[in-house]
Amino acid sequence: MPVRARAKPPGEFIRDHLVAIGGVDYPQAVLKAYKLHLKIEGIKDGICHSTMSHYFYLANRLGLIEFDHAETTGRWG
């Protein structure tokens, strides 16, 4: 069995994570949890920030998730 087959794909992990956490979480926290999941499964080269962002973009575009509680960025004044 290939090594990657042991771990959940990113889309499935996002769904399961959001259901388990109560429906609201930051994308960065989901990425951190997914990297931990991959590490536990023994996968060293996991996923990068841009790939996880793309999954969130697609899920938002399909209407599977919606962003709320937007915070302003302090850097831009």
What does it look like?
This protein has helices at residues 10-21, 27-40, 49-61. It contains three helices and no strands. It is mainly α and 77 residues long. The longest helix is centred in the middle third of the chain and has 14 residues, at 27-40. The mean pLDDT is 84. The N and C termini lie far apart (51 Å). Helices cover 51% and strands 0% of the residues. The radius of gyration is 14 Å and the shape is globular. The chain has one domain.
Number of helix segments? 3
Mean pLDDT across all amino acids: 84
Elements, N to C (H/E): HHH
How many domains would you count in the coordinates?
1
Considering the chains and any ligands shown, give keywords for the structure.
0% strand, 77 residues
